[in-house]
Amino acid sequence: MLNPGVRESFRRVGRDLRSWTPGEAVPVLAVRAAFGIAVAMSAVAFAGHPSWGQAAVMGAWLGGVAMLTPGTRTGPSLPLLVGAAGALGVVLGSIGDPIVLIAAAAAYAFTLTFIGSVTHIAGVTFTVSGIMFFLADHLTAEAGVLLAAVACAAGGAVQALTALLPPYYRWAEDRRTLADAWLALAAEADALAADPNAPFRTEPLFEAAQELDRRRALPAAVLEARRQIYAVSTAIGRVASARARADAQDRDTVEFYSEALELAARLLGHFAEQITSRAPTELDWDALLDGLSQNPMATATGTMPTEIGGLLRTLHETGGFAERLTAGGDDVVADPALAHAAGTARQAVGQLRARLHRRDPVIHHALRRAGVIALAMTIGLAWPTGHGYWIPLTAWLVLQADFAGTLTRGVTRAVGTTGGVVFASLLGMLLPQDQLWLSLVVLAYALIAYLTRPVSMLVFAAAVSGFTVFQIDLSGENPIAAALDRGACTLVGAALAIGFYTLAPTWQTRRLGDLLGDLVDAYRDYARLSLDRQAHPADYDRKVMHAAIDQIRARRSALTAAADQAKAEPVAGPGPLSADALGAEAALSRAARALVAVNATLGRDEQATGLAGVDAFADSLDTAYLRLAALARGDAPPRGIDLSEAVQRLDFRLAAIEDRDTRTRRSVLRWESDNVVEALDDAALLMAGWNA
Question: Boundaries of each Integral membrane bound transporter domain copy (predicted)?
Fold first, then answer.
């Protein structure tokens, strides 16, 4: 019987080969990037096709690829950075001594991979610009090292200038990032409308908030909307909690709260469209509210429940931010450039320093990439033809941080690149060897690659290989033999990457227990803060609470990403498997949902009275979370605690309080404390046999 991980890997490879997502295409940006290539090629032609022409065109090409990578900004800074990094690659890749070159390749691969782990932009920049290291021998054959490096940087500068051309959508990337956060909240509201205990799935919300926090300059409306994300999430949680409490009481009430959550999802989706679309649809608040007021519960009472009223007020505030962005003219809030750069650098250095230990997966990936590139460079230098550079180039692009990604990317790139080089080589036989024709073919390949970059990795790989063949390597007396040789080099490079990962893996399955334990610790911090707020409202610190929420989202994102990767790995325990970890996370998520409802009973600036008995219950929950963290990591768990008895004591203490002002808080706390205990007991049962 086939291993489930192997079966899943085959499924992902097939899905990736067949993937075609035209909705992700950005034709305006692709044409603009292709125009940058045309400008660079025209400048080279005007100068009489000098020796530095190939380096200049390649610099412009890489700047365009970086801008077309999903999740990157479309401003001029990224092409400039890619051009500069590519120039460094040209210099290092021109080392003459083979032994020193192989050592430099390994060091280059390790350094770029390690530093590129800081942010997505850094990873894209270094991966794209790293290609120039392997092409350096061709680019400097006639131009010289220094001249080729300067030309590469100049090509990136040309692409940076084209990034400023119209149509220019102001703050487009920041709007898209904020829209992603609103869409994540909309998806959460939709899920809660159907099931108030739906597990948290707000990783896009965390990623969007983190991305906005890294910006130096932002419109005031974006900055304020970023801060208001917590309020929207809390308001949605309050309505979902009210829906859960009414679940067994009144069907009309349940439908009323569900309709309010569905309305919230529609509104948030509309706001996201409003700030990203050039022609958004009009919004009729009156029609939306009229539809909500037709519910039998609203008709009978003539009022809106406080939870729904609070949600609508929060959403109205969100709509105001969207209107300010679309109207334009909003003030731009910017940190001082030097202070921002220094702060970003300190944060990056801190992240890298924290990863400098042998168990960190980033170190594993950097070392693995260095080893693969050193081996591929050795084989490439010993390859009997002039196409050996395709081997380390393919290995550089194929090797990913996880097994499934490496296998999928390896097969897709191998198939696409092999087909691309064979087709390009055969096409070179048919085309006249005229500079105008060759330039038009290069430009056509560039445009196809830019158009398909976010659409299909298979077609993109084929287009990139064709571009490289016509731009760098259209030579040889026998085009068919050259095509077969390039294809063989591509297959060797892909096989090296996949085989090396298998021999020196970082199996995500082995990390799931530790990642789940880290998530339990984050949930424990949030539980303590939520209950402390009920016991001691005057001590509440909003910033500390928001930091705890962000920590949960970050660790849940890390766990779900690792679990998705582990699903396609051909290995088993010890410890939890992918489905086990996600099942335990779902139980922990139910407990967190209940705590969100408890936390939402107090407003942002509300002055309230502390509740007796909550501290003791918080201590019991703390002990339970510590035990769960130990079970997840496979450590010896501390002595357990009877949560059922703890919740009974809390219920008794709360029932003895005779205070009308705290009646709602006490009612919610008594309801949700049972849900917390039930969820944590389920999590404990799931984890009990993992390390037996």
Answer: 375-498
What integer pLDDT is reported at residue 1 of this predicted model?
A: 44
Report pLDDT for 285: 66
Encode burial over 605-634: b for 16+ CB neighbours within 10 A, e otherwise.
eeebeebebbbebbebbbbbbbbbbbbbbb
What pLDDT, on a 0 to 100 scale, did the predictor assign at position 59? Answer: 93
| R_g of the chain, CA atoms, integer Å | 29
Sort 123 into a burial class: Cβ within 10 Å, 0-12 / 13-18 / 19+: middle
CB 313 within 8 A of CB 236: no
Q: Which residue has the tokens 């610009």?
A: 129
Three-state SS for 204-250 is HHHHHHHHHHCCCEEEHHHHHHHHHHHHHHHHHHHHHHHHHHCCCCC
Sequence-ordered alpha helix ranges (H) in 328-389: 337-354, 361-382
What's the CA gap between 47 and 40, in Å, rounded?
11
Q: pTM score, two decimals?
A: 0.85
By the 10 Å C-beta count (0-12 exposed, 13-18 middle, 19+ buried), 27 is classed as exposed
Residue type, 174: D
Alpha carbons 133 and 243: distance in angstroms, whole number: 59
Q: Are 247 and 217 in contact (CB under 8 A)?
A: no
Count of beta carbons in the 10 Å neighbourhood of residue 354: 10
Q: How many helices (H) and strands (E) does the chain have?
A: 28, 2
Low-confidence ranges of the chain (pLDDT < 70): 1-3, 168-169, 247-250, 280, 285-303, 473-479, 573, 604-606, 691-692
475: left (phi over 0), alpha (psi -120 to 50) or beta: beta
Q: Torsion angle of alpha carbons 425, 431, 435, 440, nearest 10°?
A: -80
Closest CA to 643 of 667, 668, 617, 666: 617
Rounded to 10 degrees, the C-alpha dihedral 145/146/152/154 comes to: -160
Residue with tokens 């295409």: 25
Cis amide prior to 167 (ω within 30 degrees): yes
pLDDT at 635 (0 to 100): 86
| CB-CB contact of 158 with 36 (8 Å) | yes
